[in-house]
Amino acid sequence: MIDEYKNSLKDFIKRISIFKNLPDRYLQLITDGFSIVNFKKGETIFYQSEESTDLYIIFNGKIRASLLNQEGEEFVLDVFKEGDFFGEMSLLDGRPRSATAIASEDSSLGLLRRNKFLETIKNEPMIAIEMLNALVQRLRKTDDIIGTLAFLDVSERLLKLFQEMAVTDGEKDTKGFLRIKKQTHKELAARIGASREAISKALKILWFKKMVLEEAGYFLVSPGPGGITREITREAITS
Fold it and tell me: Which segments of the chain does DSSP mark as H helices, in order?
């Protein structure tokens, strides 16, 4: 599997936003600088405040960036999947990690050392512009998280999460509902900054309003009023 990734690494990297406009000579430098690392589900890639500055690109699997308190409670800031990159903040400023990165499933990652990245960016500054664009998008997402925590109750936050999950991973069933893979109450709580008890109550509210239903292994989200908007459905879900 590792050889497979190495053989197709250049083509894969060309699809990553920050490297898509890179000339071949610098693309080769980046490719040569990558090493392949594998993590099992539940393994930690790096911890918050850890002194490391590498950039990671996901070849397959899913990684979540989280904040953990001393009791081990988790708040998920973002979830990254194939083609995404993470670790760019410490890569750019050389400071400790701002969050903990954990494998949500078995994952294969490309690891790029900071010195290799800086060597390339000096010769090809467009990478810096692309990375700034990515950072701005993540800052906007952080602002959205803050607004959600400040102004929405738990059931509204949970429905918003289901909407986002439907956009990235959902599929429409025969009755028009949007099917997303079921997660535990603990996992949902970590995604929206709530307790498991609050998630249970919120799900009951959404079930009562018929905005969210359950099926073996899946949540079904209504595309009607109060559920997924028509705009999101047209953009992300194909019939």
Answer: 2-7, 9-14, 24-33, 88-93, 114-123, 126-151, 154-169, 185-192, 196-208, 230-236
